[in-house]
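Recall the central idea of this unit: under ordinary conditions, the amino acid sequence of a chain determines the structure it adopts. In this exercise we apply that idea directly, starting from the sequence alone.
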Amino acid sequence: MTGKLRFILGIHCHQPVGNFDYVFEHGYQVSYKPFLETLARFPGLKVSLHYSGPLLEWLSERHPEFFSLISGLLKKGQLEIIGGGYYEPILPVIPREDSLGQLRYMSRYLAKHFGVKVRGAWLTERIWEPGLPGLLAEAGLEFTTVDDFHFLAAGFDTEKLHGYYLSEDGGAMVKIFPISQRLRYLIPFHPLEEVIDYFRQKARTLPDHAAIVLADDGEKFGMWPGTHDWVYRQGWLERFFTALTESSDWLEPVFFNEVLDSTPSTGQVYLPCSSYFEMGGWSLPAEAGERLQKLKLELETEGRLETFTPFLRGSFWRNFLTKYPESGWMHKRMLDTSRRVHTALGEKAENSQRLPAALRRLWMAQCNCAYWHGIFGGLYLPHLRKAVYTCLIQAEKLIAKDGSGIPRIQGEESDIDLDGHPEVRLANEHLSLYIKPSRGGAVVELDDFASEFNLIDTLARRREAYHYQMAEGGEQGSDQRGHASIHERQFPEKLPQDVFVYDPYPRWMFREHFLERTPRDFQEASRGEPAELGDFADSSWNWRLLVRKGTRAACALNRSGQVRLPSGEYAAFRLGKRFSLAAGSRLIEASYRLENLEKQPLEFVFGISFNLTVLGPADPKVGLICEHGSAMSLAQGSILQACKELTVFNHRENVNLRLGFSLRTSCVVQYPVETVSQSESGIDRTYQATCLLPLWPVKLNPLSSKSLKLTLTLFSEKS
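Accordingly, the structure predicted from this sequence is:
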């Protein structure tokens, strides 16, 4: 051994806003508590600890004794506390005033509860953008951590990385510690001998008293699949801590702060937009992500992967906002709500001794997990998306109570999602709906203020880069000794090809369809059959906003398009629709006019799709009733014959939706929308929405028209 090596062990623990209470409790029992209890038995060891705000709040309420355990370890000098964005946001993609506010609030919270002065920040998902030095410095923070892959992407040799590096933006400086990816994969998954051998190699090759870092998810110590048995029952963590203690003559556990205060920087660096290696692939569009996976496998087989890894960067986190339109819409709604909240609160947002309730709800809606998808469910988990929308609705209600008030009726246009095309919002004191003329004139969001619930919080079925692997199947785990990391797990179950059904556009409400016939069954409709004859469902519509002050707001839309004939030719057709909302009403009126512009008759089946979320379709508290029939489960599809009215009841959220039709339908096709995604435990098949597709056979004479009216009513159990 030629020198002494310093080792920083950083643990980041987080549970998202909206996660189930039993998940928090499970994490506490199998991971968070046993980790610190094990650490307490090794008084010579040191750990740098970061807990996110949602987890801290849950712990303080449900297990206040855990705060005492943390305080005791702090007094013994075994813990260093790290700050960050309080509700675990992706800092560069939320408004700067919110980023600063969350960073400063976390520092104040930790000082109040644990008496510590926070010097460093955990970066959510280690997502780095070049403007972060200025943000962190302005928030009073000195350092952060990123993966060594960030440095690799900047041209560094990761084998030579150690200590910390200086970076700046506009003259504001921050210190950056690189995290060892190799240690992330070794600990706690590989046998202890491999881990210690790696430390010995680093002690031989790095300068004396160099510092290397492992900063990673605390959940891997007990909460990830199979790790509680491996880490605690089989004693991996106990043996690891024992080995660190017995190696103290050459391997010294230290804090970030100790390295900062005793060692000059290793050098300067300017890092590109980046995260850890896997994130780059996850954020790519599916086709590109699949090509990247196959290229990586090819290079690995040829023994050239290490050489080319710096150039296999994929995309960066912001690409999720275009990869998933549902995420992009939710993100822009958050930005719009942030503007409204800060305008309403003014100086109170920053200067108040107590965090304003509306600002807290906004920050909660900025929790990152529901906005993206990688190896964990994330965006694919309906309860996480629900939490975001609920918090946004609550924030808007709170600022209205603070003085701005909810208008009796409102109609406004603005480019909410910043795609260059305006959206239309109709709202009164009970509900609001957002119409997107550029994408089929569809309703993309329907918020019920009483239940604080968005009824169109849906997710379309789309191709993912890993779907081809699910179709092929593979062996579980890896050929190494030890426990496979979630990044090394494969899909043991081979899924049939017909499982992978993809939607052509997001699943919203009030999309219009022209079909040559009625679907034979709900499975056929779920597959998007029979084929679409018109070009109306996702095209741009003309529109105008109509507001009668104080009483009614409406949006009138129309499109001159085409309908394909049995001969293969196209017939000119005009479709108009008008949404109307009155003050004080929970009823939305939708009026349609179908116009044949040809000098020949037209015959087709006309349908309007309604996609809505109910959370838990098999729950008896939710279901579907057609007129005076009995309740039906939403977990199974069906075809309902000849309806003039149907109701989707949701007693879980206490909001029900009644659809009424001026013309009796020939039928209503109903089916659940289920996605196929990966998670830490393997393959997830997740209910995302229920699709209702009322259908009418239409015969139009030359140059004639037909009218149709629908009503959509929201009501609670009491009403």
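Residues 670 and 692 are 5 Å apart (CA to CA).
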